[in-house]
Amino acid sequence: MVTSHDDAVSRYFAAWNAETDDEVRRAVAAAFTRDASYTDPVVDIAGHEEITATIIGVHKQFPGFEFRLSGSPDAHHHIARFSWELVSGADGSAPVAGFDVIALADDGRIRAVSGFLDRLPAA
């Protein structure tokens, strides 16, 4: 059975994996509330424009990579947590990995993300 949490996580990955700038904008609007916040060790942002710009920036930094869910989301009430990896389409390597905690609004869209990075590429 698909829950609102599973649906939110699917829309989250659709936003991060959208291929064109316009697709990212549309996917962000579908996944996040207008005033959603997104905080991880690299950014502390809010709103569709800033979330869209961050996703587009990651695409430019990691061309040919895709965010993939690792395992299954764990959820209760209005929150869910899940692990992910950023995977190269060319060789399957995953230089970046982490986990996120999302909080959902009443309409099922994400109102807040707290992200944590578990693995980063060597500098």
Description:
With 123 residues, the chain is an alpha+beta fold. The chain has a single domain, classed as Nuclear Transport Factor 2, Chain: A (Roll), CATH 3.10.450.50. It has 3 helices and 6 strands; from the N terminus they run ααββαββββ. It has a 6-stranded mixed sheet. A hairpin with a 4-residue loop joins strand 1 and strand 2 (44-46). Helix 1 (4-17) runs antiparallel to helix 2 (21-31). The longest helix is centred in the middle third of the chain and has 15 residues, at 47-61. The mean pLDDT is 95. It comes from Frankia canadensis. It holds the Pfam family SnoaL_2. Residues 9-112 form the SnoaL-like domain.
Summarize the helices and strands and which ones pair or pack.
Layout: H1 4-17, H2 21-31, E1 32-39, E2 44-46, H3 47-61, E3 65-76, E4 79-88, E5 96-104, E6 110-119
Parallel strand pairs: 1-6
Antiparallel strand pairs: 1-2, 3-4, 4-5, 5-6
In short:
It is built from three helices and six strands; from the N terminus they run H-H-E-E-H-E-E-E-E. The protein is an alpha+beta fold.
Pick out its properties.
123 residues; alpha+beta; Nuclear Transport Factor 2, Chain: A; 6 strands; globular; SnoaL-like domain-containing protein; NTF2-like_dom_sf
What's the level 1 CATH class?
Alpha Beta
How much helix is in the residues?
Answer: 25-40%
Walk across the major sheet and give the strand order.
Answer: 2-1-6-5-4-3
How big a fraction of the residues is strand?
35-45%
Task: Please give the domain count.
Answer: 1
Q: Identify the CATH architecture.
A: Roll
For the CA atoms, what is the radius of gyration? 14 Å
What is the H-and-E element order?
HHEEHEEEE
- Distance N terminus to C terminus? 42 Å
Oligomerization state = single chain
Helices, by number, come to 3
Domain SnoaL-like: 9-112
Organism: Frankia canadensis
Pfam families: SnoaL_2
Protein name: SnoaL-like domain-containing protein
